Amino acid sequence: MRILVVEDSTPTRELLARSLEAAGCVVTFAARVATARRHVEEASFDVIVLDVMLPDGSGLDLCRELRAHGVLTPILFLTARGDVEDRIAGLDAGGDDYLRKPFALAELQARVRALGRRHGLAPPATLESAGTIIDFTAWKLTKEGVEVPLTAREWGVLALLASRRGRVVSRGELLETLWGERSPEASASLDVIMSRLRRKLGDAPKRCRVSTVRGEGYRFEPSL
């Protein structure tokens, strides 16, 4: 597995490196938010291990930013604070798990393995069909060689649907995952985004598209 560790403490980074590399992981390190952001833009990871407190920002804010841009990689927070309120804050920010320092290395490895299994539902790096290329690594959609811009929210919806390609994703799951609520405003926003995605992807035969399954939700079809 490819792991991104965002941690500013050198001793902790070295400890994590020994533990995760011993478990067969390929580890990339970042000590600052800016560096972590660049790594995520340039490569894909199976799990992100993220410290809450960093020199140039908050791990919680970085997590929110990544989720807003459609990054679905599982995130494990590390922190010296383990109060219930702190754990809730991490989960509400979009994190998947929370590990308090100091921790047992065996537990760290087990949690990373568990999160890595979830990443099996991540979107593919690239989808190509009938002149349409969707690059989930560079976050770029091109049709007939022309780039088609998507908003962060549109990428989020498309990435979630593509991760379940060929299967139905309910409106409720989309709203809960990407908006964190099922309000009328969020539902209306989803309708607008679906309309835009269909227009931008097109509906020609053999081209990637999003279809509606009446009464159930939406399905991403890589090609027909």
From TrEMBL:
One GO MF term: transcription cis-regulatory region binding
An annotated GO BP: regulation of DNA-templated transcription
Residue ranges flagged as DNA-binding region: 124-222
GO CC field: cytosol; protein-DNA complex
Domain OmpR/PhoB-type: 124-222
InterPro entries, per database record: CheY-like_superfamily (IPR011006), OmpR/PhoB-type_DNA-bd (IPR001867), Sig_transdc_resp-reg_receiver (IPR001789), WalR-like (IPR039420), WH-like_DNA-bd_sf (IPR036388)
Modified residues (4-aspartylphosphate): D51
Gene3D superfamilies linked to this entry: 3.40.50.2300, 6.10.250.690, Winged helix-like DNA-binding domain superfamily/Winged helix DNA-binding domain (1.10.10.10)
Domain Response regulatory span(s) in chain numbering: 2-116
Record SUPFAM superfamilies: CheY-like (SSF52172)
Name of one Pfam family that matches: Trans_reg_C
Keywords: DNA-binding, Phosphoprotein
Keyword Hydrolase: no
UniProt cross-references to SMART domains, sorted A to Z: REC, Trans_reg_C
Presence of the UniProt keyword Nucleus in the record: no
Matches recorded under PANTHER family: REGULATOR OF RPOS (PTHR48111), TRANSCRIPTIONAL REGULATORY PROTEIN CUTR (PTHR48111:SF36)
Protein name: Response regulator transcription factor
Species whose genome carries this gene: Eiseniibacteriota bacterium
